Amino acid sequence: MPVAAVETPVGCLGIVEEDGAIVELAWDGADEGERTPLLDEAVRQMNAYFAGELTEFDLPLKPRGNEFQQAVYRQMLAIPYGETRTYGQLAKELDTYGQPIGQACGMNPIPVIIPCHRVLSANGIGGYSGQGGVEMKIALLRQEGGYPFLI
């Protein structure tokens, strides 16, 4: 699988392509294999996002995960740039509880693009399974201006 590395304010991210779709975003990524037009476009969009010029990614995505995880990923993709939802709000939409939502968020293979950082606990920031943990989540929320008291 080809990987395109992109330097961002939150570190070097590796965007992984498989069969014409983005399947993973890896922390501390490194270029691997031959660059494809899709990976070039993904790097362009990632740079535009961190420059504050892009609020919604337009890339073919194929995240790994079971049916429930896929449903959670779709819910996260529906959260607009600069906005947040709680685990409980997503749970209500999917007729489940907050804990399974949090677990699915933690399994998100394409963070940033599938914006799990936009999902918060009812009483605060919640967790983040990406490199850097909660500090990374805060950095991404600040990037979007989506959690005003952090700015």
UniProtKB/TrEMBL annotation:
<keyword id="KW-0808">Transferase</keyword>
<protein>
    <recommendedName>
        <fullName>Methylated-DNA--protein-cysteine methyltransferase</fullName>
        <ecNumber>2.1.1.63</ecNumber>
    </recommendedName>
</protein>
<dbReference type="InterPro" id="IPR001497">
    <property type="entry name" value="MethylDNA_cys_MeTrfase_AS"/>
</dbReference>
<feature type="domain" description="Methylated-DNA-[protein]-cysteine S-methyltransferase DNA binding">
    <location>
        <begin position="67"/>
        <end position="145"/>
    </location>
</feature>
<dbReference type="InterPro" id="IPR036217">
    <property type="entry name" value="MethylDNA_cys_MeTrfase_DNAb"/>
</dbReference>
<dbReference type="Pfam" id="PF01035">
    <property type="entry name" value="DNA_binding_1"/>
</dbReference>
<keyword id="KW-0227">DNA damage</keyword>
<dbReference type="InterPro" id="IPR036388">
    <property type="entry name" value="WH-like_DNA-bd_sf"/>
</dbReference>
<feature type="active site" description="Nucleophile; methyl group acceptor">
    <location>
        <position position="116"/>
    </location>
</feature>
<dbReference type="InterPro" id="IPR023546">
    <property type="entry name" value="MGMT"/>
</dbReference>
<dbReference type="GO" id="GO:0005737">
    <property type="term" value="C:cytoplasm"/>
</dbReference>
<keyword id="KW-0489">Methyltransferase</keyword>
<dbReference type="GO" id="GO:0003908">
    <property type="term" value="F:methylated-DNA-[protein]-cysteine S-methyltransferase activity"/>
</dbReference>
<dbReference type="GO" id="GO:0032259">
    <property type="term" value="P:methylation"/>
</dbReference>
<keyword id="KW-0234">DNA repair</keyword>
<dbReference type="Pfam" id="PF02870">
    <property type="entry name" value="Methyltransf_1N"/>
</dbReference>
<dbReference type="GO" id="GO:0006307">
    <property type="term" value="P:DNA alkylation repair"/>
</dbReference>
<keyword id="KW-0963">Cytoplasm</keyword>
<comment type="similarity">
    <text>Belongs to the MGMT family.</text>
</comment>
<comment type="function">
    <text>Involved in the cellular defense against the biological effects of O6-methylguanine (O6-MeG) and O4-methylthymine (O4-MeT) in DNA. Repairs the methylated nucleobase in DNA by stoichiometrically transferring the methyl group to a cysteine residue in the enzyme. This is a suicide reaction: the enzyme is irreversibly inactivated.</text>
</comment>
<dbReference type="InterPro" id="IPR014048">
    <property type="entry name" value="MethylDNA_cys_MeTrfase_DNA-bd"/>
</dbReference>
<dbReference type="InterPro" id="IPR036631">
    <property type="entry name" value="MGMT_N_sf"/>
</dbReference>
<feature type="domain" description="Methylguanine DNA methyltransferase ribonuclease-like">
    <location>
        <begin position="6"/>
        <end position="63"/>
    </location>
</feature>
<dbReference type="InterPro" id="IPR008332">
    <property type="entry name" value="MethylG_MeTrfase_N"/>
</dbReference>
